[in-house]
Design a protein that fits this description.
About 45% of the residues lie in helices and about 15% in strands. It has about 90 residues and is of the alpha+beta class. The longest helix is centred in the middle third of the chain and has 19 residues, at about 35-55.
Length: about 90
């Protein structure tokens, strides 16, 4: 849209510069910020769950946490077979 508008302005003599758009993905900036309390709680829970799965010999399983919209003491942890995710 910007490119089209600048073409119109250039034809009208109102713009003499050049324009080259650069795409950008804001996801990287979002992930590089400080983690929230939720991020820290979820990360700790996922790590603890992973440790328990390995301790009990459950390999080939991805750690999962459900009910994360509730308070952490209501979260449910478990393991999902990786083959089931394919």
């Amino acid at each position: 849209m910007v490119e089209e508008e600048l073409k119109i302005r250039k034809k009208a003599g109102k713009y003499k510069g050049s324009f080259a758009h650069v795409t950008h993905f804001f996801g990287y900036q979002g992930r590089s910020g400080h983690p929230s309390h939720f991020d820290c709680s979820l990360g700790s829970t996922m790590g603890f769950t992973s440790g328990l799965l390995v301790e009990h010999g459950l390999t080939g399983v991805a750690a999962s946490v459900s009910n994360v919209t509730m308070k952490p003491n209501n979260w449910r942890v478990g393991g999902v077979p990786i083959l089931g995710l394919l």
